[in-house]
Amino acid sequence: MLKWYEETVPDGDVVISSRVRLARNLENYKFSPLLEEQDAKKLVEEVKSITPILSEQDNRKYYACNIQSLSDIDKTAMVERHILSPLLAEKEQTTGLILSEDETVSIMINEEDHIRIQAIVGGMNLEKAYEIANRIDDIAYEKLKFAYDEKYGYMTSCPTNTGTGMRASCMVFLPALSAARMIQKLFEEVGRYDVTIRGIYGEGTRSLGNIYQISNQKTLGNSEQEIIENLKRIVYQVMQQERKRREYMLSLNSDEIEDQVYRAYGILKYAKQITSEDAMMYLSQLKFGADCGLIKFNREFNIHKMMMGVQPGSLQWTLGKSVGSAIRDKARAEYISKELPDLI
Known about the structure:
Strand content: 15-25%
Protein name: Protein-arginine kinase
Structural class: alpha+beta
GO molecular function: ATP binding; creatine kinase activity; protein arginine kinase activity
Organism: Herbinix hemicellulosilytica
Shape: globular
Number of helices: 12
EC number: 2.7.14.1
Catalytic activity: L-arginyl-[protein] + ATP = N(omega)-phospho-L-arginyl-[protein] + ADP + H(+)
Order of helices and strands: EHHEHHEEEHEEEHHEEHHHHH
Mean pLDDT: 93
Radius of gyration: 21 Å
Distance between the termini: 28 Å
């Protein structure tokens, strides 16, 4: 079964994925920041009880666990694959997770809210992500009683999520705008439309490999459809700006850029050790070159999947053990060299 990041998707040169997240809270519990440990355990078990119902009604296989039962490597790898939020991975209170086998759906239990339903799909497809998240929300609603107010909508621990409780986001690859140092200006422009740009893992994180998240800020007073349409409009504008900037760069320095792309390939293919930061930088250059047709591989190859695979947690998860940075750097180089296809 293909994971979302293994699929070939439209507009994948700029938009890596689309995600919709729904914040929900149960009526009979205090909000998570005020929840006592005994009630936190009860809450997690109550929400986990819907797992078999999800498997039956959503036509996917679902699994559930307590986050505390996972190793640090497991949690880090799940953050890197956008299954868990950094907050949930670090929280000491009892927390839980329900995850679909294809990693399209994850339900984070007792994060900032009691439930965070997340659906993530490849490419520019916010409608599909919302359709999936909404279906899971309907299934969960039949079993769990959500806190809802006729005037204010879904009750959430943070007022900025009240209303629909929905955050929609697109993960975007912006190497040309980053190279032109236009990201800060972009931050200011999109902010006027109730949209924000954050790092690769969301709020409080930085960009890696020129990857950012663009998401809505406002949830109260707008319908789910309005939120999606507004975000789509902004993302399409960003996409156009990025593509125009790529064309401009290539018109000025195509030989220099092509040389840079091939150098990146050579380092990735033949290095004996490489840090995760260097790997992301060269993989970003390689993706840019592949997206622009400057370099071609002898088989289909998903560079973003490798970008996740070279991260510390995912790499150690593949190795099956915790290792130091020197061993990781050597293992990372071996992994890249093995998985990187030959050139045509």
